[in-house]
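ugh ok fine here u go
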Amino acid sequence: MYEVKLDAFNGPLDLLLHLIQKIEIDIYDIPMKELTEQYMQYIHAMNQLEINVASEYLVMASELLMIKSKMLLPQTEESEELEEDPREDLVGRLIEYQNYKEYTEILNEKKSERAFYFSKHPTDLTHLEYNETWDSNNTIDLTDLIIAYQKVKNRVEFNTPKTVDIRKETFTIQQATSQVNARLQQHDSFNFFSLFNFTEPVEMVVTHFLAILEMSKSGIVNIEQLKNFDDINIIRGVNYGIER
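structure:
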């Protein structure tokens, strides 16, 4: 069995739609004389080129001639009211075929788009299923809940990105050393906490701490605490006042 295609047309309806669009006629009010002439010219052209015309094209040609002849017959007012338009069936088939062509184009576009996707079949996870039961008498201790909360909190803090603010140094160890020396020039010793009013930036406190450690290592100052958790005193060391 062979499928016959004439030019770019898939059957007589496809050819008729092409002719309707070409000669720009209304599909709902087809001038049968003009359409039939155009269609027959195409069939004759195929015969002259010795192309075998499929039987369906010849059937459509006879149908067009029949419709054309019916429309040429004189009609009375009564027959016009009773008889249907002989073109009605042809128009319905053409509109239906036109819709199918549009749907085909849409489906072909969907098919082309779908070719870019790959579908994975569902994975069988039934072997991982289990029945979980809950014992209403099984209570949890508040301490365990607090421990679980702390673990979650630590995990969140660990996974949270940390930001570091790097700024230019505004208070140097040399400046802190000068402040300590200025105090020792006025007093033999002073309380470590008296260096601050507790509104300074943290880096200033750290800088003072590092400066005092460096001065203690060099023997410029001594650090004294009479008992645990008592105030810390900064005292002149053996090398205090010696030019370095």
